């Protein structure tokens, strides 16, 4: 009996294979739904509604050209997009939506960090309100500094979530970004009340079990945190059939 359910971040076309190999769910990119194009979204939605494996999580929340901080932030476009996202996620039955979106949240030179934080707090409050009653929780994803110049550690993400203070806003811990930023594994325990979702990779951002990441330590801290929920692999894959199966066996073994 596992405390956790295991999924993989991939396109909807991989749902059948992941299900056959024993995964519990698939995590897809929200941008793949093309929410801003009504006709294309209508064509794509049935694939997610009728997926052979539940689409319980979505990442890549905003398209890169939809800036949510800085002078280019288009409040009306953001409002429309978030509203459509909440509706789509609810229809599909997703439990978690991940807000990484490094390009969308990267604030430009000359823009004060404090102003960027205020914009993010407004955005999180908007998403939190839209998600109320949908069954979906937003997980703020800390990204390493090569991908985003704001929210780089789990504690920073929790600081924002605490300020918004809505039950629909929580935080994700990503082993790859934590390793890149040298974010201590103990942060999982320190921020245990705020964890909504977990992303995994291994050395070189490759499949779990192929590198030298300290998985025993990570798994022990996650268990000590009391987290019981979804764990998704998010990484580069060279040989899907082989790596999916091997990584699932590895994750199940490590996180028993």
UniProtKB/TrEMBL annotation:
Question: What Gene3D superfamilies does the record point to?
Answer: Divalent-metal-dependent TIM barrel enzymes
User: What organism is listed for this UniProt entry?
Assistant: Paenibacillus plantarum
Name it: TIM barrel protein
Give start and end of each Xylose isomerase-like TIM barrel domain: 21-253
